[in-house]
Amino acid sequence: MKLDLLYALTNRSGALSWHEVLQQTRRHAVLADELGFDRIWLGEHHFDVDGTDASPNPIMLATDLAARTERIRLGMAAVSLTLWHPLRVAEDLALLDHFSGGRLDVAFGRGILPIEVMNLNPAANRWNGSDNSRAIFAENLEIVRKIWTDDKFSWRGPRYTFPEPGTKFIHSPGAPMPDGWVDANDELVAFGMTPQPLQKPTPPQFAVTESMEGFRGAAHTDLKPITWYPTGQVLRNLLDAYRAEREAVTGQAPALGEDVGVLRLTYVADTDEEARRITEASVVEFFELVCRVRGIGVWLDADEDPADPRYRAMDPFDLLMERDHLMIGSPQSVSERMCRLSRSHGIQNWLVQMGFPGVAHSDVDRSLELFASGVMPELRKIEPATLATR
After folding, report:
1. Residue 339: partners with Cβ closer than 8 Å, 6 or more residues away
2. pTM, whole model, 2 decimals?
3. C-beta of residue 351 within 8 angstroms of C-beta of residue 3
4. Over 70: is that where the pLDDT of 390 sits?
């Protein structure tokens, strides 16, 4: 069982300076390391003005955290691959892998907010009906993987050509000529990256996705899915599809839930009542935001009609709790809910987000400690044989 912390840099009240928010982030990362969390995941979000998650460069942030922690792995969830030059992001991630002593895990995504995508790479528009975003993602991913592993790297694709034709290779007279890099005219025909990642052949790779298409695509590209909103039968259908696609690709079916990370809003207090009191306003605000952007259907199960007015009439906190979107309550309540879902869906990797907008940093401290002392041990006890297999 892998138990990870998804960390958002929040400052909803605006009471803290962003320097103070970064200081809190450092402190929480060290605490998560000491408490036994397996990973801390950092997102990539640009132009944040509402205190939701100001994290424009998770690679740079993780480099700082690597120097302050000893054991915890550092996850990127996700690097918005369509918004980066593929060679630059490959170099930056490789350096982070070295700085962290091989503790890097990296999830790739296509960017999720128009303000980010349309202002950093409008060619990666996800909302105009074209396939450009997926095509850019696929090409960039292949380039990153290839330069991470090839000593003689070259690429001819729809958007990039490496090396650029006609590039001369100017090197030190005292250094040996790299094998296979130049032709008879001293023009580059291949090159390599220094350094390549510390982990061989590459750091573990993931994909952040919620769709059937995304799960199947992850299975075919050897990426491990991380998902947030799917619940109940919707989640089960995705897990089944990923398992079937991996079997089609590799000839072997993984266990149900194997290699899939499931994210949930999480908060642990001494009692259920206290946990709800601290988090309810933030949960309701988040619920309304997601409904405005994506519709209420994202929260519902497979047999529930988003057009049914009953769901809009429900208390949002209760609706989310009943559908297992919230791991919020006492240590006993949270551990019982997470253990039940682990067994019913074969979940072997949980990502918990405790710091969400409106929850004070001091409250996050207590939740981290209670999760580590009261929930983590129960989840660690789960035997693989007790997990659902079909």
Report:
1. 378, 379, 382
2. 0.95
3. no
4. no
